[in-house]
């Protein structure tokens, strides 16, 4: 579909064929907020369930308690969620209002007028002044620069801070300033899309400006919404996309929520509890009906009618359904959302994750997945700008078979090269010329005469600056005329065409005309596999292949430079085809690439450049630490194979020979790749039990074939290898590899710094963006942004691990407190004729769910089982989180059993102490409730590892608040609890009962915990002991593979203060876990720290799918 935009046509504008420029990011309006928000909240199953329960409680015949006990918490939780949504939407409204009411200059009826930005229509000519924000997507018509250039800042669009140049279409060149507001024409463009790097359109100007000649438009002829005009006095353009149809507006939107492993487990546990609840309800319902028809009618005080209504059999089961509905905690979602928001704030507030060089702090964009950081199993990382600094330095080169810079390590100081330049060696001069002008760099001259360069690529910046230091200075660009200074001479070239770089072509070229002699030249630079195959038939390229290999072995980035002279007729014929391809609106990129291929052949390869990109500080240490934590690393890069391998070796991705082994997957055909893949798989299987660090290397071509035709075999290879190096991969292939690992049920984290990493970052379970020199595109698309790669260690080991531990406790405790009160209700039913009568009144139940048991546990967000220094020193303990040791059916069964045991204790002691003739049911209810509150205070205290004043205040202050609140209710005659708490607190029997409940309930728990902590300590317990005794915590040291290890060898560095007469009992890490066969890291890894001898034979990636 096409869009036809008539320029400066007031009549077409009045028809409003397209949307006006009113920006709206709001989710709601005043009228639809309540119904839409309620619809969204009730679209969740749990909310539907609680609404059903609340509605059933309105039926007075079956409700055992006042409906307020459910409606109160339900309304409170919905109100909290709705308030948060309303506040967020109101802030979006204020932001939209500010943008919509900004005043701009627009041409209306041939006159420039001042209007609000929201009143701009498609086809209007908009005038901008320096530093103005662009209000909509514009096609440039004119600028204050004589050559039709303007400079824009796109940081709000793609995060890149370097200024970019934009140019008016060739059809608008030379139009006088006074005539711009009268210009008429037609822009033929595609319908709105969100691709900010592409705009395939055509322009036709009506007479007298131009006689309907078609002028192709690209993204370089546009300035997009939210960019800023810089270093340009004025510019004007025609509005082509407005409002929410701009490229920025189309790219806005709420990303799909990510489901964490913890959330998935909570959903499964909720389902299990629901099934258990239904079974309990059916059993008790049948028992209640049987008792009613047999025993109940014999009791004089039970007055059942002889014949009831048709639904009589449903009354007791429904009553038990309402009684047992609190098995599923109504507050769990709000509680989890609240603490997850706090986890995100902890990341934002972490001063140790601020990049001191740039001042950039870490930031959590997604507040819902922090606990997933502690369960990461695979990290897929970009190389350039992520592992490296992305600061390119020209180091070496090879020109016509002669190597420069090999001895000194710096070609710029190589005497032989300097002498060749001084003698004006032909090949060297051509080589430097390509370095200087085959690019998109813009030279900027300061008032002092100094020349600086604005480059969109760090490689181009390095090449242009290196050429300048070698006396080939790119001095000026005036329209299409480039000026080069060389030894005092001014050399001018006219740019005829630019063949832009794409990830498919992997090269760029310019067609220039030498203004001195009129020769037309094609200058090209690109990857070796893109340039060397295009060399002329008679040229020997072996030297250049060797140069590329040599530089790659040093970890340097390589580019090949080539050229050829074009004949006039050849260029004119090709130029016609290029213009035709550039003006098509369908498959323009593919058509242009095909036409470019017709010109880029028979090249004379001049040489190879080698650019250094240094590793960031702390990268090797970070990768080594995270590998010890059981995390596998894959490097996905666009660089060539040898360069990637050298970087991988230098940053501890893989070990050098003989400890490490690299297996290569290559081939250009399906059969070759199949044989290579089978060979590597065979080697992987045979070396799996050997102490070798085995990794595989694959390039983009072989990877494409493997993913398309050998998915299963490549998936098996991925699960067998801890490390992979994927070279020459495209952005789509990066995303495919993430999807492959996710399909194997692994938790993936993708980290990158550039726009080409966005798809990978968004595809992964967790996306991390680095705020780097390539801009903020990756950081904005990611769930978390950090300043440097080294901060990833703290993000995972500290924030991820703490978040997982806290969420695991909070979620299981929420079920525990709900099950506790529900079991007491069930037990009470056995002494109340199985009638579904509630022991507790409505006020107590509501306060229990919302206040008494929620506040203490919310401060668990401050709990730390180990100090941060200990966690960073012993990364192996992350394996507990990866294996789901703290939240799984086994641990949940423990909490389930604890709630059942505590319910028995509370019920039995309370009944025996207060179930006599003179007691009131309200007294019994309050004693049982007091026992629950005291028990839960001690449970929270027992599970807390590090106490702060706030935690003490929340736990014990909440206990005091319980009595204060109930004293207040006891003073109200209408509360149903009149004088109850006053009387109880004066009775010694009450306090003795509470003491017995606490002693009987917590005694066995304390004894079991002491036994495990003392005689069967986990590795975390051992570290806790060392911390509390104040002794030094030694490193675990290296763990040699394939050795029969004893517990003394594993634990002795940690338990330095352990009594000598104690025989430590080894705790198999996963023996009691439902995921016990999920994965074992196998030999050759430092994770034998967690392996018992009987687990050592398990396959590392054995899955329980």
Describe the model.
It catalyses: ATP + H2O + phospholipidSide 1 = ADP + phosphate + phospholipidSide 2. It is an enzyme of class 7 (translocase). It is found in: Endomembrane system; Membrane. Keywords: ATP-binding, Magnesium, Membrane, Metal-binding, Nucleotide-binding, Translocase, Transmembrane, Transmembrane helix. Residues 100-163 form the P-type ATPase A domain. The protein is α+β, with helices and mostly antiparallel strands. Helices cover 43% and strands 17% of the residues. Strands 14-33-32-31-15-27-30-29-28 form a 9-stranded mixed sheet, with helices on both faces. Helix 2 (33-41) packs across helix 4 (68-100), helix 9 packs antiparallel against helix 25 (791-830) and helix 30 (889-914) packs antiparallel against helix 31 (921-943). It starts with a strand and ends in a 54-residue tail after the last helix. Residues 1035-1105 have low confidence and may be disordered.
Break the fold down into its secondary structure elements and pairings:
Blueprint: E1 2-7, H1 10-15, H2 33-41, H3 45-56, H4 68-100, E2 103-108, E3 111-116, E4 125-129, E5 137-143, E6 149-153, H5 155-158, E7 164-167, E8 185-190, E9 201-205, E10 215-217, E11 222-223, E12 228-230, E13 234-241, H6 247-251, H7 261-294, H8 312-324, H9 332-348, E14 363-364, E15 378-381, E16 388-399, E17 402-404, H10 415-422, H11 426-437, E18 442-445, E19 451-454, H12 458-469, E20 472-478, E21 481-486, E22 489-499, E23 507-514, E24 520-526, H13 528-531, H14 542-553, E25 557-566, H15 568-582, H16 588-599, E26 604-615, H17 619-628, E27 632-636, H18 641-650, E28 660-665, H19 670-686, E29 693-699, H20 700-709, H21 711-720, E30 723-727, H22 731-743, E31 748-752, H23 758-763, E32 766-770, H24 777-781, E33 784-786, H25 791-830, H26 842-852, H27 855-858, H28 868-873, H29 878-882, H30 889-914, H31 921-943, H32 949-970, H33 980-985, H34 988-1015, H35 1019-1029, H36 1047-1051
Parallel strand pairs: 15-27, 15-31, 27-30, 28-29, 29-30, 31-32, 32-33
Antiparallel strand pairs: 1-8, 2-3, 2-4, 4-13, 5-11, 5-13, 6-7, 6-12, 8-9, 9-10, 14-33, 16-17, 16-26, 18-19, 20-21, 21-22, 22-23, 23-24, 24-25, 25-26
Helix pairs in contact: 2-4, 4-26, 7-8, 9-25, 11-12, 14-18, 15-16, 17-25, 19-20, 19-21, 25-30, 25-31, 30-31, 30-34, 31-32, 31-34
InterPro entries: ATPase_P-typ_cyto_dom_N, ATPase_P-typ_P_site, ATPase_P-typ_TM_dom_sf, ATPase_P-typ_transduc_dom_A_sf, ATPase_P-type_domA, HAD-like_sf, HAD_sf, P-type_ATPase_IV
Domain P-type ATPase N-terminal: 5-71
Transmembrane segments: 45-62, 269-291, 819-839, 845-862, 895-915, 921-941, 953-970, 990-1011
């Amino acid at each position: 579909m096409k869009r036809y935009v008539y320029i400066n046509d007031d009549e077409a504008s009045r028809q409003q064929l397209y949307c006006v420029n009113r920006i709206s990011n709001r989710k709601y309006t005043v009228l639809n907020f309540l119904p839409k928000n309620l619809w969204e909240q009730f679209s969740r199953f749990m909310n539907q369930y609680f609404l059903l329960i609340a509605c059933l409680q309105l039926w007075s015949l079956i409700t055992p308690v006042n409906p307020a006990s459910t409606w109160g918490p339900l309304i409170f939780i919905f109100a909290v969620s709705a308030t948060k949504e309303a506040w967020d939407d109101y802030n979006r409204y204020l932001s939209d209002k500010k943008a919509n009411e900004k005043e701009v200059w627009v041409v209306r009826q041939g006159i420039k007028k001042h209007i609000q930005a929201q009143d701009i229509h498609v086809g209007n000519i908009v005038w901008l002044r320096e530093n103005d924000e662009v209000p909509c997507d514009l096609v440039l018509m004119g600028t204050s620069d004589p050559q039709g250039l303007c400079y824009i800042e796109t940081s709000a669009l793609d995060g890149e801070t370097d200024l970019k140049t934009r140019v008016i279409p060739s059809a608008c060149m030379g139009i006088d300033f006074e005539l711009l507001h009268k210009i008429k024409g037609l822009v033929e463009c595609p319908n709105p899309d969100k691709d900010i790097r592409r705009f395939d359109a055509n322009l036709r100007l009506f007479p007298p400006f131009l006689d309907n000649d078609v002028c192709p438009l690209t993204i370089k002829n546009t300035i997009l919404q939210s960019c800023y005009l810089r270093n340009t006095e004025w510019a004007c353009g025609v509005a082509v996309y407005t409002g929410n149809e701009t490229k920025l507006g189309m790219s806005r939107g709420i990303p799909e929520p990510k489901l964490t492993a913890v959330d998935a487990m909570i959903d499964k546990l909720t389902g299990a509890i629901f099934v258990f609840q239904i079974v309990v309800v059916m059993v008790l319902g049948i028992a209640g009906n049987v008792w009613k028809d047999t025993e109940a009618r014999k009791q004089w005080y039970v007055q059942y009618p002889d014949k009831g209504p048709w639904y009589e059999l449903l009354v007791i089961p429904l009553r038990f359904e309402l009684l047992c509905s609190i098995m599923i905690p109504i507050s769990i979602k709000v509680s989890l959302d609240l603490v997850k928001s706090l986890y995100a704030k902890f990341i934002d507030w972490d001063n140790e994750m601020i990049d001191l060089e740039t001042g950039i702090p870490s930031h959590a964009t997604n507040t819902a997945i922090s606990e997933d950081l502690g369960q990461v199993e695979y990290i897929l990382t970009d190389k350039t700008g992520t592992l490296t600094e992305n600061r390119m330095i020209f180091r070496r080169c090879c020109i016509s078979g002669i190597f420069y810079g090999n001895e000194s390590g710096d070609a710029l100081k190589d005497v032989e090269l300097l002498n060749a330049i001084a003698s004006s060696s032909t090949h060297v001069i051509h080589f430097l010329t390509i370095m200087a002008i085959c690019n998109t760099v813009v030279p900027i001259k300061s008032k002092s005469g100094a020349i600086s360069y604005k480059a969109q690529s760090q490689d181009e910046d390095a090449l242009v600056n290196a050429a300048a230091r070698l006396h080939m200075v790119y001095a000026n660009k005036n329209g299409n005329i480039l000026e080069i200074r060389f030894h005092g001479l001014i050399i001018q070239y006219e740019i005829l065409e630019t063949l832009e770089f794409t990830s498919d072509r992997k090269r760029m070229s310019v067609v220039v005309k030498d203004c001195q002699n009129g020769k037309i030249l094609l200058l090209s630079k690109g990857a070796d596999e893109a340039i060397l195959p295009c060399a002329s038939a008679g040229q020997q390229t072996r030297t250049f292949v060797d140069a590329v290999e040599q530089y790659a072995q040093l970890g340097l980035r390589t580019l090949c430079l080539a050229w050829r002279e074009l004949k006039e007729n050849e260029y004119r014929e090709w130029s016609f085809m290029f213009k035709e391809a550039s003006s098509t609106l369908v498959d323009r990129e593919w058509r242009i690439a095909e036409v470019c291929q017709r010109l880029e052949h028979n090249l004379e390869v001049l040489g190879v450049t080698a650019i250094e990109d240094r590793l960031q500080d702390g990268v090797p240490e970070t990768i080594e630490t995270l590998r010890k934590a059981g995390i596998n690393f894959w490097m996905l890069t666009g660089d060539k194979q040898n360069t990637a391998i050298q970087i991988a070796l230098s940053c501890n991705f893989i070990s050098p020979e003989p400890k490490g082994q690299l297996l290569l997957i290559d081939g250009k055909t399906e059969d070759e790749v199949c044989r290579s893949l089978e060979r590597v798989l065979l080697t992987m299987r045979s070396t799996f039990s050997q102490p070798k660090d085995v990794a595989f290397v694959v390039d983009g071509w072989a990877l494409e074939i493997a993913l398309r035709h050998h998915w299963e075999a490549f998936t098996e290879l991925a699960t067998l290898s801890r490390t992979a190096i994927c070279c020459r991969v495209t952005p789509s292939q990066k995303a495919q590899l993430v999807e492959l690992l996710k399909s194997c049920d692994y938790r993936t984290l993708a980290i990158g710094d550039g726009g080409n990493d966005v798809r990978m970052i968004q595809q992964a379970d967790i996306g991390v963006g680095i705020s780097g020199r390539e801009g903020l595109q990756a950081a904005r698309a990611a769930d978390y942004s950090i300043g440097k790669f080294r901060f990833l260690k703290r993000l995972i080991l500290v924030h991820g691990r703490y978040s997982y531990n806290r969420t695991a406790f909070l979620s299981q405790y929420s079920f525990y407190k709900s099950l506790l009160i529900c079991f007491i209700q069930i037990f009470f039913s056995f002494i109340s004729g199985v009638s579904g009568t509630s022991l507790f009144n409505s006020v107590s139940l509501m306060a229990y769910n919302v206040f008494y048991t929620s506040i203490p546990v919310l401060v668990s967000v401050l709990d730390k089982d180990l100090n941060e220094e200990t966690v960073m020193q012993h990364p192996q303990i992350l394996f507990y989180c990866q294996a789901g040791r703290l939240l799984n059916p086994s641990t949940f069964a423990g909490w389930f059993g604890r709630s059942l045991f505590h319910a028995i204790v509370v019920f039995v002691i309370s009944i025996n102490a207060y179930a006599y003739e003179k007691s009131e049911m309200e007294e019994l209810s309050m004693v049982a409730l007091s026992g629950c509150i005291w028990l839960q205070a001690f449970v929270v205290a027992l599970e807390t590892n590090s106490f702060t004043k706030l935690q003490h205040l929340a736990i014990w202050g909440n206990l005091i608040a319980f009595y204060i609140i109930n004293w207040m209710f006891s003073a109200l005659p209408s509360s149903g609890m009149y004088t109850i708490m006053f009387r109880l607190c004066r009775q010694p029997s009450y306090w003795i009962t509470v003491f017995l409940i606490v002693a009987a309930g917590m005694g066995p728990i304390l004894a079991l915990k002491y036994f495990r902590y003392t005689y069967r300590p986990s590795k975390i317990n051992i570290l806790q002991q060392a911390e509390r005794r104040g002794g030094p915590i030694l490193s675990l040291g290296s763990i040699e593979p394939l050795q029969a290890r004893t517990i003394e060898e594993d634990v002795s560095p940690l338990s330095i203060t352990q009594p000598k007469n104690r025989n430590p009992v080894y705790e198999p890490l996963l023996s009691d876990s439902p995921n016990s066969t999920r994965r074992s890291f196998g030999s050759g890894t430092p994770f034998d720290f967690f392996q018992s001898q009987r687990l050592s034979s398990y396959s590392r990636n054995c899955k329980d799918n």
